Amino acid sequence: MSFNNTNTDILIAGAFAAFTVDILVYPLDTLKTRVQSPDYNKLYTKSSTNAINRSLFRGLYQGIGSVVLATIPSSGAFFTTYEGIKSLLSHAPLPTPVTHSVASSIGELVSCLILTPAEVLKQNAQMVSRSHRAPTSNKIFDGNATLLALKKFNSPTQLWRGYTALAGRNLPFTAMQFPMFERLRASIHTYRKRKGLATGILWETGTVTAISAGSAGAVAAVVTTPIDVVKTRIMLSAADSEQPRGEEQNRIVKEVEAQGKDAKAEIDKARQAARGGRAGGLAVGREILRTEGMKGLFQGGALRGLWTAIGSGLYLGVYESGRRYLEVRRTGAGECAAL
């Protein structure tokens, strides 16, 4: 389906779609992060019975502020790049699925540059437990969690740790999702036209897009769950990836010497931990496989599939409907039929 949209239309539609999804399905993303965390059993299950603790379901909107601020420009950047590259490659002798994969992949690389700091901060805020917050802080939208997560970072560069992991997850995801999505959407529209069911109204555009995107997204999400688990572990350890130095190192020396310990040994231990905190995605994946098996690599897979089915359906459904609405409003062409 082809729309005559300006870049402004695409930016507005993408931003509105991102905001809608962030508000509605963010709790599922928080649950997924907590399930994939290495501290899941310690923080969210009862050691005696292994039953889920109610704390798993508290503060489900922690960290949402940073994501809303970042996903609006990052989504606009993604769709502008995606539509631009797709249009550019439409004249090249490439199969349509390849065109969609290349366009979505380049769009993701641009989007991830904007999104990575917010994603790192968000996931660390999602893991802030109630005991670390102010006693009066029991609101579902908890800004204190974001501030507490931010205090863990000693350098702004730490917020960018995880770009390769985020891009490494999103690239195969979008490369799988968008060709499936475009093919499924085209097939549904063709079927409806052949059966005489097509109406061309805005509601039809949004519904067909949502079903196609949700179905394609759920499949791609489950397949890429191991990469998502690795990305989560890397981002949760981002704040611990700096080696102690300067005043921090002097503070550690004084503390360990006061305890009668070997200061040099403790500094070396902290540096080793920092090197481990900077482990690459492959090393993190191998460690998860070694200690937790294949089950560990697919932690949160069902939640990720559900979150993505709902999120992608809403995201692309709202995006396409928004583009259609803005085009009709701007041009006035076919207004009655389109709406």
UniProtKB/TrEMBL annotation:
Keywords: Membrane, Mitochondrion, Mitochondrion inner membrane, Repeat, Transmembrane, Transmembrane helix, Transport. Its main location: membrane. It is found in: Membrane. It comes from the Eukaryota. Pfam families: Mito_carr (PF00153). InterPro entries: MCP_dom_sf, MCP_transmembrane. It is a multi-pass membrane protein. Solcar repeats lie at residues 5-88, 95-187, 204-325. Belongs to the mitochondrial carrier (TC 2.A.29) family. This is Mitochondrial carrier. It comes from Lepraria finkii. The lineage of its organism: Eukaryota, Fungi, Dikarya, Ascomycota, Pezizomycotina.
